[in-house]
Amino acid sequence: MTQVATKPTVFCDFDGTITAVETFAGMMKTFAPQLCAELLPQLYEKKITLREGVRQILESIPSSQYEAAIAFGDDKPIRPGLPELIDFLDHHNIPFHVVSGGLKGMVERVLQRENLLQRVASVTAIEVDPRQDKIIVPPQRFEGDTELVAKVKVIQHHTDGETIAIGDSLTDVNMAFYVDRIFARDRLVKYLETENKPYLPWNDFRDIHHTLQQQWDT
Predict the structure, then answer these.
(1) Between helices 33-44 and 50-58, what is the axis angle to 10°?
(2) Domains of the chain
(3) Residue 167 forms beta bridges with which residues?
(4) What is the distance between the alpha carbons of residues 166 and 18, in angstroms, rounded to a whole number?
(5) Alpha carbon of 187 to those of 117, 184, 211: distances in Å?
(6) Structure confidence at residue 4 (pLDDT)
(7) How far apart are the C-alpha atoms of 168 and 154, rounded to whole Å?
(8) Is 2 exposed, middle or buried (0-12, 13-18, 19+ CB in 10 A)?
(9) What does the pLDDT read at residue 171?
(10) Partners of 134 in the beta sheet?
């Protein structure tokens, strides 16, 4: 078996990537429907930044609903093949980091449900303060000019080597242009094709596993 010449690091989005549906976006639409109807189209059209739009939506949600908001992901399925992909990456001593523009509490809860939380190298997502009347989104460790979680900053924090990313939507665009290889699906594909950015298509994690296995185990 041929060993990986330079071991990369893998960074994976959560909402709509690890989960098979848009879990964080669905939660915001459920708990802040009117504001989401107004702001989400502007976000997707890049008329307002993720940083301002997501913060505004989250801070409109009463803190009394925080636990229910976190629990919104409890019945949302994950995309097939993730445990096996992590097994494969473990075999090659390649870390798998979860980086999300959603709520950290929800991300960790879903990963714990699937017995995967202890198997990922790190989880970076939005951390909030639910102790006031409404949820407060304080300054984030990796906050950027346009993102509450600037995924490029997270990547730079964890590695200066080869990078692979997995994503599906608007929150993954900056990351996609930064990394060496991007696995893209759904809305992210449209953004990348508009900019003529090369990508590797995927449907579920079995596709990514198969692609990497062909490259590394032959």
Answers:
(1) 170
(2) 9-216 (3.40.50.1000)
(3) 184
(4) 9
(5) 26, 9, 21
(6) 45
(7) 18
(8) exposed
(9) 87
(10) 62
| pLDDT confidence of residue 2 | 45
* Rounded-to-integer distance, Cα 70 and Cα 176, Å: 27
Q: At what angle are helices 50-58 and 23-31 packed, to 10 degrees?
A: 50
- Secondary structure of the chain in HEC code, one letter for each residue: CCCCCCCCEEEECCCCCCECCCHHHHHHHHHCHHHHHHHHHHHHCCCCCHHHHHHHHHCCCEHHHHHHHHHHHCCCCECCCHHHHHHHHHHCCCCEEEEEEEEHHHHHHHHHHCCCHHHCCEEEEECCECCCCECECCCCCCCCCCCCCCHHHHHHHHCCCCEEEEECCHHHHHHHHHCCEEEECCHHHHHHHHCCCCCEECCCHHHHHHHHHHHHCC
pTM equals 0.93
Instruction: Compute the distance between CA of residue 204 and CA of residue 183 in angstroms, rounded to an integer.
Output: 10
Contacts for 80 with CB less than 8 Å, ≥ 6 apart: 204, 205, 206
CB atoms within 10 A of CB 190: 10
Dump pLDDT digits (tens) for 100-141.
999 999 999 999 999 999 999 999 999 999 999 999 999 999
Task: List, in order, residues 6 or more apart from 171 with CB less than 8 Å away.
Answer: 13, 15, 50, 100, 101, 147, 149, 151
